[in-house]
Amino acid sequence: MLLFAFVVLVPSVRGVYYAFTDWDGLDPSFSFVGLANFAEIPRDPDAVQAIGNTLLIAVAITLIQNGLGLLLALGVNTIIKSRNVLRVFLFAPAVITPIVTAYLWRNLLGPDGAVNSLLGAVGLASWQQDWLGDPHLALWCVVAVIVWQFAGYSMVIFLAGLQSVPKEIYEAAALDGGGPVRRFWSVTRPLLAPAFTINLMLSIIGGIKLFDQVYALTGGGPGHATDTISTLIYKDAFTLGEFGYSIALAVVLTIIVAVASTGQYLVLSRNERAAS
Amino acid sequence: MNRYRWRTFALELAMVAVAAVIGFPVYVLVNLAIRAPSDNSSPIRPTTSPTLDNFTQAWQEGALGGALVNSVLVTTASVVVVLAVSSLAAYPIARATARWSRGMFLLIMLGLVLPFQLAALPLYQTMRDLGLLGSAWALILFYSGLLVPFTTFLYVGFLRALPRDFEDAALIDGCTPMRAFRYVVFPMLKPVTVTALVLNAVGVWNDFFTPLLYLSGSTQQTMPVAIAGFFGQFVSDWNLVFAALVISVVPILAVYFALQRSIINGFAGGLRG
Fold it and tell me: Do A76 and B15 touch (CB under 8 A)?
């Protein structure tokens, strides 16, 4: 408990305090500047862009990763022969160090990378480009890399939910004349509510706090096109020495995480109760 | 509805195709790692004359052996401390009905919501003042504090659902509470322990931001930081970088494939807790 207080609570409280100062991280003399750091955020185009990027990435990852994960789970939760092998195989990227996958993709998406070679090989040479060099595409590349890595993670959680659904319920629904789509919507979906809660929580919070992949894949670039709040915090603090401002950004991040997770928790737990 | 038909076969083919797409980057990774730097053919073509030179060179120049040892040490030490502290903390919280246990629980939940970025910078300063910056001890200390809330949360959830009869029997037979915990309760906690072990170990092993902050510039690096440094050094030499990536991925994938059942159940286990 003491340890927890030492590494989480005390520094967090001190962090909140520093957000109101102009501390540069080294100088022991710093002054209280009130809300100046926070007032600075909306005027800083980099910060505004980073907040926008963070929210966009979080929403995109949540929708795509969980959509794909659910489809994979439904596909694996059948009687196909390769189901056990596929389950192990599809989950494997999730245990690989994120920074390693990011470096791998940095090469794959490069001008001479495998993605362009593949496009050339299937006759889509006109699609070849420097994926990470384009400010608009680069952000979607970050999303794609994360979805690639964690779709299997969502799958495993959905799968655990699917396997806890008793077979009799499906058989009863089929006897009553429910087609596959109807069975999914009226039977499976409500029973998967706990799995949805966990998956959405994990991907939203993970997306908001995203750092490693952006750092290694694009370094926030080109320009600040793919900076997230976390990479900007790091840059402002350790390359620009603006600790006070950087911690003010961290406070904003905290607020976003807290709002997103409580909001989501309230909505989803109401759904869960409605479903059960 | 449970017979293997042509539609099932079509689904099977589709799923294998998806798996192939997902596995494709890994193929390129290995393909380039075993290729001589002079070979400039397309990255998707199989390498004609494979070589292991990249691996030996990456191993020597990246000091990856030391990083590997550090990663293993930090991960093991942190996970052992976290599991011991959390299970011990969760037991009174789950069992006591006193008011403080609820307050304690709320405090721990607070630790779950606070993002690490908020604490990172002030803690950086504290670590520096303590002279721990650049030492693996800083990491072990940090992870122990950071991961205890979540792990305690898992344990409390599980303990609340566990019947008290066994421990009561042990206590009546003259067992001390500590012994009852060690020999009666802890073994029954095995499913959560596996989940907590897997989640924490993977989390610590893969973490990059913390060691980047607290170990930067020191010789005691963990694998992810060593890889990032290696990348910075050999940025255009992709064959070498890929060999280093393979070296860093092999241990974790080996453990994963060896223990895949418990690992996947461990990840999915949070659902039932």
Answer: yes
Backbone angles phi, psi at B149, to 5 degrees: -55, -50
Q: Is residue A161 in some structural domain? A: yes
Show the domain range for A162.
17-275
B242 close to A (CB below 8 A): yes
Q: How many domains does chain A divide into?
A: 1
Residue A24 near residue A243 (C-beta atoms within 8 A): yes
Select the residue from B22, B30, B207, B247 to test the A interface by mutation, using most A Cβ atoms within 10 A. B22
Do residue A88 and residue B260 have CB atoms under 8 angstroms apart? yes
Domain membership of residue A203 (yes or no) is yes
- Print burial letters for A9-37: b (CB count within 10 Å at least 16), e (below 16): bbbbebbbebbbbbbebeeeeeeebeeeb
Q: E strands of A55-104, at which residues?
A: none
Q: Do A151 and B115 touch (CB under 8 A)?
A: no
CATH number at residue A114: 1.10.3720.10
A10 falls within a domain: no
Question: What is the least distance, in Å, from the CA of B224 to any CA of chain A?
Answer: 7
C-alpha distances in angstroms, A13 versus A16, A18, B145, B214?
A: 5, 9, 15, 20
pLDDT at A63: 92
Q: Which of A80, A235, A245, A265 has the most B C-beta neighbours within 10 Å, making it the best mutation to test the interface with B? A: A80
Question: pTM value?
Answer: 0.81
pLDDT at A150 over 80: yes
Contact criterion met (CB below 8 Å) for A162 and A184:
no
Q: What CATH code would you report for B64-269?
A: 1.10.3720.10
| Residue B26, number of CB atoms within 10 A of its CB | 18
Cβ-contact A157, B268 below 8 angstroms: yes
Q: Who's near B254: CB < 8 A, 6+ residues apart? A: none
Phi, psi (deg, nearest 5) at residue B262: -70, -35
- Which parts of chain B have pLDDT scores under 50? 1, 272-273
- A8-65 tens-digit pLDDT: 666 666 666 666 665 655 555 566 666 667 767 777 778 888 888 888 888 999 999 9
Q: How close, in Å, is residue B165 to chain A by CA atoms?
A: 27
First to last CA, chain A: 36
Q: Chain A residues with CB inside 8 Å of B238's CB?
A: 107
Tokens representing residue A225 in the block? 């096109």
Q: What would the mean pLDDT of A207-236 be, rounded to a whole number?
A: 81
Chain B residues in contact with A218 by the CB 8 A cut-off are none
Residue A2 inside a domain? The answer is no
A9: which chain B residues are within 8 Å (Cβ-Cβ)?
Answer: 107, 110-111
Domain ranges of chain B: 6-51, 64-269
Q: At what angle do helices A45-76 and B6-33 cross, to 10 degrees?
A: 130
Distance CA A151, CA A153 (A): 5
Please judge whether A15 and B11 are an interchain contact, meaning their C-beta atoms are less than 8 angstroms apart: no
